[in-house]
Amino acid sequence: MFEVNIAVILIVCLIALVAVGVHIAIALGMTSALGIFLVTGADTYAFGTVQRMLAATAYEAIRDFIFAVIPLFLLMGEFISKSGTVTDVYRGVNRMLRRLPGRLAIATIIGNALFSFVTGVSIASAATFSRIAYPEMKRFGYHNGFALGAVAGSSCLGMLIPPSVLMIVWGILTEQSIGQLFAAGVLPGLLLMSMFIVYVFAMAILKPEVVGAGVKPNETAKAVGADVTPDVVEEDVSNVQFVISLVGIVAVVVTVLGGIWFGIFSPTEGAGAGAFIGLILAVLKGMRYRDFIDSILSVGRTSAPILLLLVAASLYSRTLAMTGMANAIEGLFLGSGMEPWMIITVMVLIWFALGMIIDSISIMLLTAAIFAPIAVKLGFDPIAFAIIAIIAIEAGLLTPPFGLLVYTVKSAIQDIDADMNVMTIFKASTPYWIIMLIGMVLIVRFPEIATFLPELLF
Predict the structure, then answer these.
(1) By the 8 A CB rule, do 125 and 161 touch?
(2) Gap between the Cα atoms of 161 and 57, Å rounded
(3) Which helix (H) or strand (E) holds 34?
(4) pTM exceeds cut of 0.90
(5) How far is CA 82 from the centre of its chain?
(6) Helices (DSSP H) in 263-403: which residue ranges?
(7) Contacts for 351 with CB less than 8 Å, ≥ 6 apart
(8) Where in the chain are the domains?
(9) Rounded to an integer, what distance in angstroms lies between the CA atom of residue 228 and that of residue 413?
(10) CA–CA dist 355, 12 (Å, integer)
(11) What are 183-206's pLDDT values in tens digits?
């Protein structure tokens, strides 16, 4: 009973701290310290115990070689993004689809999928394509909400298609193979991409006005990518530029993912190889020295908070074990008498709710250590469950009132369309949210969608 009371106190404290705006890493650390303090007797020796556990956890949590994966993959994505490669590929795909209804939105979805193979952050995808694709769709008369919905919705692919930071974090937290998780994300990612394209194509046929049909293009508007890579943007990309950029992205994907899947590289070595190829591609594309420095600094600003979160999450996991909170929550779920699919539904609803207020990595840090063992005891494949979790967490970032992906898009287009209402973007993103929900149901019903490649390659 004592452990249950401590578990309740810690959950309430954690929710309260997050609700009042305390940074999630600080909230995790404070809650963990409180839990250790209570379990060890709440005396003067408890302070020493908290200090020793914090020091040991901070050292053990990030000394592992695997943690270099995060900054290296982020660096690879930064080099490829800022070199103009993504812009060239987007324009090339757009030109190839010129006879297809809704081609710009479809090109955005395909471009986001390709970009997902070289970056691991969906927010980076949302920010990049807001400034690459939205000006072009706006120029050709697309409905503003529909255009931004395509950007926000398809940017979710960034966390599902490998290499994904969420997959890396999930693998670390649950001690699963990162290579297997990378393989598991490919088919679900392509499935969602295909469903997004079908939705856009159907809208282009049923409501052609949303894709600019009958609207005269505004030829004086900014060309695609003008705000992203102003020194390399032209009105159209040459075949040579397109081929170089596409071959570069394919080379990165084949080298990194192929090397990991076939045992040539460890995930960390693969990330290093990818960063090196990204550097070469950036040099070939004429990336400036200042952009290289900016890329490195940007990776530092992004990866340092992630590593801090991982330290706090490791301490939090130890506290769960000490207080018995994980066992209490597990017992609550398993003893509820609900069917397995009902329990998974409750988990998904919790992820959706958390997605309204905090970022995806923080959601994973809070829930992975608790939910993953429960799913395994319910008979779910751990790899398939990981993919379900990632889709649910990303879908939560499209959910009002504080869906972070939507606000990222809104922020990225502030100087392009300052009057855009954020609720318009939420509304336009809803179909993509529904499609992701359908994708989750399909994986629950047919886990082979996620497990086929891992079983084939490992």
Answers:
(1) no
(2) 31
(3) helix 24-39
(4) no
(5) 19
(6) 267-284, 289-323, 325-334, 340-355, 360-377, 382-396
(7) 363, 367, 389, 392, 393, 395, 396
(8) 2-457
(9) 12
(10) 18
(11) 999 999 999 999 999 999 999 999
